[in-house]
Specification:
This protein is α/β, with parallel strands linked by helices and 276 residues long. It has 9 helices and 13 strands. The radius of gyration is 19 Å and the shape is globular.
């Protein structure tokens, strides 16, 4: 579950759709990055930080979707850092959780890792020998951020970059996500921990994936525009953006419901084009 990707920097695997969280351990403090979909996994992260000699009292949220926050109860006792739009995204998760768990809204809210420190542009944290830079990379979510460990040139991308699933557009916008991906290409990244999938090592592998993901989104949009312009309705346009042509063997078709996820992304892009 815990893999040391650089000295004192750990990826933390989740059983939810090949999810990835993180922990950064400095000389003076430790920091958790996201907290999984499950409380037992959040608890394991808290225990891990305590084993390193620190209290689990610093948590960064890359965005406010449920699979990145529901495990946060053991990690929310101190400061929780997030983009200023993330609390609003978290608010929208509450009704779903109430219905799924059949508990009161008050109980759900009390367990959620509500941000205590929010920012708009960027935030820096010095953990002692480890400098963490948080900056916006929206598109998957309106409040999406990436987290960069400066000394190790290592990026936790949240769901701005994924390779365990097809690029997903949750409450965001695929056009904005493309802009974020181009922004990430200008960051000196030697190791990339995606929100879902496998860790990428080496600048060439990181850049290759960023280029492919932005190319995928652009290619889907180009085809959608062409099909809609020809007079096809949304359903026919979506059918024209087939999995094999646009993803091929880049992602395993038999894992994590990949064809359905591809279709969800196509439908979202069609919606964006129709709305304008």
């Amino acid at each position: 579950m815990f893999t040391e990707e650089a000295s004192g920097v750990f990826s933390v695997a989740s059983r939810f759709v090949d999810g990835m969280n993180g922990i950064v351990v400095g000389e003076r403090a430790a920091l958790a990055i996201d907290c999984s979909n499950y409380e037992d996994e959040g608890q394991a992260m808290a225990d891990f930080i305590r084993d390193k000699g620190f209290e689990p009292n610093r948590l960064v949220l890359t965005h406010g979707h449920g699979d990145h926050i529901w495990g946060g109860k053991p990690l929310k006792s101190g400061e929780v850092f997030a983009h200023h739009l993330t609390p609003g995204v978290m608010e929208r998760q509450v009704p779903q959780a109430v219905g799924r768990r059949d508990v009161s809204e008050e109980t759900i809210r009390s367990e959620m890792p509500w941000p205590t420190v929010t920012y708009r542009e960027e935030l820096w944290i010095d953990l002692g020998g480890k400098t963490v830079w948080m900056f916006p990379s929206p598109g998957h979510s309106v409040g999406g951020v990436s987290v960069y460990v400066v000394e190790d040139k290592l990026l936790f991308s949240g769901d701005s970059v994924v390779n365990g699933i097809v690029a997903a557009i949750g409450d965001g916008d695929s056009r904005i996500l493309e802009q974020s991906l181009y922004k990430l290409m200008d960051v000196d990244i030697e190791t990339l921990v995606p929100g879902h999938g496998k860790v990428l090592h080496g600048k060439d592998r990181v850049l290759d994936w960023l280029q492919w993901q932005v190319g995928y989104l652009g290619a889907v949009r180009d085809r959608v525009q062409k099909e809609l312009a020809s007079g096809k309705d949304a359903e026919a346009a979506a059918e024209a953006v087939d999995y094999a042509s646009f993803i091929g063997d880049r992602l395993p078709i038999d894992r994590n419901g990949m064809p359905k996820r591809h279709r969800n992304t196509v439908d979202k892009i069609i919606e964006e084009e129709q709305v304008g």
